[in-house]
Amino acid sequence: MAYTGDVTPGGPSDVRELGPATLRKMSVSDMHNNVYLLTCTATGEQLMVDAADDPDRCLALVAEGTGRLDHLVTTHQHWDHVRALPDVARATGARTYAGEEDADALPLAPDVRLRQGDTLRVGELVLDVVHLRGHTPGSVALAWRAPDGVTHLFTGDTLFPGGVGNTKNKGQDFDALYGDVTERIFGVYDDQTWFYPGHGGDSTLGAERPHLDEWRERGW
Question: Which CATH superfamily is domain 14-218 in?
């Protein structure tokens, strides 16, 4: 597989062919924010996850695919994930989505407020919405199960290689995020699941699962 998931700000996107879907990943800004574009190969519909920064590069990523953007999901409200949101939405006319509890904090009110258990259809692709509390009140992840049985999971800043996302309150907020990640991610999806975080490289649940107790003990 040529795809590695290793991208750098200003560098080229990395492309992963997944049968009925094509995934593109790029990095923007000095925060190394990841921007993802998922394309339904049958219909040409496209979904972007986190228009984090640099609207021109985000639009260029759209053009690398089919040139259209139908859906634009913001995983959470933090400023570094939303800087290009208004411009990209305006330029493409994409329908916008965010978690219900984060929606009012965004620079652009979403067309759709997402809740746990919702689904989002991108052409022939159906993605499940997973609400993960603690990093922000309304953080959401998106899960798509490929025909080969492997789930592809976009986690925003809730799950990274090596631990869950940062929380302001190392007690209550960490407990909420750790609880949701263990129950709604590790308790639902198998070890083959490949996840794509909001910053940095990818990983699999199988690589991270043995460390869950360690994360719990250290509190981050």
Answer: Ribonuclease Z/Hydroxyacylglutathione hydrolase-like (3.60.15.10)
